[in-house]
Amino acid sequence: MLKTLIIVLMLALVASMGSGFYYLMLDQGDKTKRRTFHSLGVRLGLASALLAVIIYGVATDQLGHRNPWDAGPRPNASQNAD
User: Fold this and answer.
1) Per the domain annotation, does 45 fall within a domain?
2) Of the candidates 45, 44, 18, 23, which has an alpha carbon nearest to the alpha carbon of residue 34?
3) Whose CA, among 2, 23, 29, 47, lies 20 to 30 Å from 38?
4) What are the E-state strand segments in the chain?
């Protein structure tokens, strides 16, 4: 569920970047239109939400790395028999 939310937020960030570029090209030279500025505000909000979700996921141990070398050495079953 958390990974899905992260993917949705990342896709929303990309869409916001696209709309910001579109408005930037469309409103060139027009100082009365603030659509590019509003798109930047939406992008900042999405980025902070994404950062908060990632921090929450790492803090609750729902996200993290599971590398084999982080587990440490495992003793063999024959060594524990003694």
Assistant:
1) yes
2) 23
3) 2
4) none
Q: What is the pLDDT of residues 13-69, one digit of tens each?
A: 999 999 999 988 888 877 788 888 888 999 999 999 999 999 999 888 888 777 766
Structural domain includes residue 69? no
Contact 42, 15 (CB under 8 A): no
Residue-wise pLDDT for 18-29, tens only, equals 999 998 888 887
Amino acid at 82: D
> Which domain range does residue 40 map to?
2-25+35-62
Q: Is residue 78 part of a domain?
A: no
The residue count for the chain: 82
